[in-house]
Write a structure and sequence with these properties.
Elements: H1 16-31, E1 34-36, E2 39-41, E3 47-49, H2 59-76, E4 81-83
Parallel strand pairs: 3-4
Antiparallel strand pairs: 1-2
Amino acid sequence: MGGDEYLILLQGSFTTDGLSELLSKLSLSIGEPILVEGKKLEVGASIGYSLYPRDGTTAEQLVNQADHAMYHVKAIQRDGHTRQLPYN
């Protein structure tokens, strides 16, 4: 996407529990410390997501919803994930 934002597209059907498990595993994987020139580096991620067709039917709508969800996560916690509810 740009800067330090990335987009992952997944095809298929996901239950709420299955998606939550997948996002938790992704967060844990990203959070694994790595050694660079003998120094331990740790990073984290604020993950927002959207689901088709619940959160939008176009790529632009889905990306916008996921982006809003990511900023919502950043506002309430670090290194977590959530889904922004569609606007009414």
